[in-house]
Amino acid sequence: MTNLVIAEHEEGELKGATFNTVAAAQAIGGETHLLVAGSGCAAVADAAAKVEGVAKVLLADSAEYDRSIAENLAPLIVGLAGGYSHVLAPATTFGKNVMPRVAAMLDAQQISEITAVVSDDTFDRPIYAGNAIATVQSADPVKIITVRATGFDPVAAEGGSAAVEAVDATGSAGLTSFVSAEISKSERPELTAARIVISGGRGMQSGDNFAMLEKVADKLGAAVGASRAAVDAGFVPNDYQVGQTGKIVAPDLYIAVGISGAIQHLAGMKDSKVIVAINKDEEAPIFQVADYGIVGDLFNLVPELEEELE
Amino acid sequence: MKVLVPVKRVIDYNVKIRVKADQTGVETANVKMSMNPFDEISIEEAIRMKEAGSATEIIAASIGPQQCQETIRTALAMGADRGILVQTDEEVEPLAVAKILKALAEKESPQVVIAGKQAIDDDSNQTGQMLAALLGWSQATYASKIELGDGKATIIREVDGGLETVEVTLPTVVTTDLRLNEPRYASLPNIMKAKKKPIDVMSPEDLGVDITPRLKTLKVIDPPKRDSGVIVETIAELVDKLKNEAKVI
C-alpha cells in the first residue's frame, strides 16, 4: 500500500485533522506520503516532514492552490493519484469540498467520513446521523477516502524526518476565485480538537448570554460550541455549530447547556467520553445520552458552575 | 435561465431509525419518507431566483423507485415547473447519481444546478462536487448566500473557520447549507396545480448511465451504546463527580 494524505494547513501551520488522517493512513498500512499544496507554503512542508510516520512530503507551491480552490487542487491530486493505492483527506470543509471532484475525475466511488479501517479495502462509516455504522468494501483501484478525525488518535507532530520533493503545478482552472473570508479568531482551543467543550442551545436565549459559557470555558480551558438552533437564531456564528451537518466532536467532556438533544445534534457529540446536560426540561432527550444531568434553570446553574470551578 | 434541482426521497429527519436485525441495512418499510431537508432548501432557492426574474424554469429531478414521484410533486407544489424521474429500484451511489445528473444537465442545459450539501440518510456530501467535476463546471459548496451576476455568481460559503466568499463562473453547481433560506410550505392551491405539471419518467439506461454500485455493504450495525447516566441534584455534586468519579477535570 502507498497512501497519499492531502494535508490541511492554514497560516503556515498544519491543521489538527491532518494528524488524525495520517493515523488513518497508517492503519491502512504501507508507506504514507503527505501532499502540501498552497501558495507560499514551504514552511508547512518543512513541518510536514517532521510528522511521525510520514515517509515523503510532496510540495506544490503555486498561486492557484491558494485557499484550496477545489477546481485547481483536484487536477493536481488526480495527476499524482496513479502512484498510490489510497488517497485520504480530513473530513473537514476543506477535504469534503475537494475530494469528490478527485473521485469523479478518477471514476471512483469515494468513501466519506471513515471512522475505522477494517482492512485495506474495507472501512466503517457512519450513516443516518451516526445512528447506524456501515461497513463497506471497495474494489476501486485507487480508494478515495475522507477521514472523520474523531475516529483516529492523531500521530505526533515530531519524530519523522521525510524528504520534501517539489511537484509540478497544474495551473488554474479559471473557474472559481476567492474573494474574502470572515474567520473566527479565538484564544480558546479549536472546537474539534478541544479536550473540553461547553455548548449552548436555544435555551441560552441570546448571543450575549453566551458570555456565561465563555466564563466557564475560560476556567476549564474549553472550547465553546452551539446547537443549530442557537446559530440559526443568530446567537453565535456558524462555525460554532456541533451536529450532523456541522462539526463532529468527541472531547473528554461535553457540557450541553440549554440544548434539547435533537438527533441531529447528538450526531455531532455522542462519542464524547463524558456528557453533562443542563436543562430545565427533565424530558429533554439530551438526558438520555448524558452521563450526568442536572435539571434546572441554566441562568442559575451556569454561574454556580463557574463559581464551583477554581 | 434554467435551474436543475435534484431532490432525494429519504427517511424523514424526525424518525428514529432502526437497524435491521439481519444487519443488511436500515428499516425503511412503513417508515415516513420526506424530501431531503437540504433539497427543500435547494428548491426554495431556485423558486426565489425565478421570483426575482433570474430563473425562467425550474426542473426538479429525482432518482429512485416510482414513489419518488411524491417527492417531485412536493417540489412542483412548492413552485418547480416540471419534474424528471429517473426510475430504478437499484441502489444508486453518489457517483451514479452524478453521472445521471450530468446526462440530464447535458439534455436541459441549465446555468445553475442547486443540490443539497448532503443527504441525511447516506451523509456522503459528494454528489454536487462530483457532478461539477464531470461537467467541468465551477462549484460552490455549503452556500449560505447566492448572488447571481452576469456570467458569474458570488457565493458565501459556511466553512469550518467561519464564512468564505467566492466568485464562480456560470454554469455552476452550488450545494446548499442550512442557513441559505427557510423553505416555504406548499399552499393547497399550489398542491392542486402541481398535479397538472408534467413529470417525465425515464430509466438510467435511457440516459446511457451504468449505475452498478462500486461499494459492497458488508454489514450495517447499531453504534456502540452509552451506559445510562444519573441525575445529580446540585452543581457541587456535579463538579465532585466530574473530578473524582469521571476524572475529566
Written description of the protein model:
The complex is a heterodimer of chains A (about 300) and B (about 250). Chain A has about 300 residues and is an alpha/beta fold. Chain A has nine helices and 18 strands. A seven-stranded parallel sheet of chain A has the order 7-11-6-1-4-5-12, with helices on both faces. A five-stranded parallel sheet of chain A has the order 15-14-16-17-18. In chain A, strands 8-9-10 form a three-stranded antiparallel sheet. In chain A, α5 (about 210-220) links the parallel β14 (about 195-200) and β15. The model of chain A has no long low-confidence stretch (mean pLDDT about 95). Chain B is α/β, with parallel strands linked by helices and about 250 residues long. Chain B is built from six helices and 13 strands. Chain B has helices at about 35-50, 70-80, 95-110, 125-135, 190-195, 235-245, and strands at about 1-5, 10, 35, 55-65, 80-85, 110-115, 140-150, 150-160, 160-170, 170-175, 200, 215-220, 230. Chain B has a nine-stranded mixed sheet with strand order 9-8-7-10-6-1-4-5-11, with helices on both faces. In chain B, strands 2-3 form a two-stranded antiparallel sheet. In chain B, β8 (about 150-160) and β9 form a beta hairpin. In chain B, α2 (about 70-80) crosses α5. The N and C termini of chain B lie far apart (about 60 Å). The model of chain B has no long low-confidence stretch (mean pLDDT about 95). At the A-B interface, α3, α4, β7, β9 and β10 of A face α3, α4, β7, β8 and β9 of B.
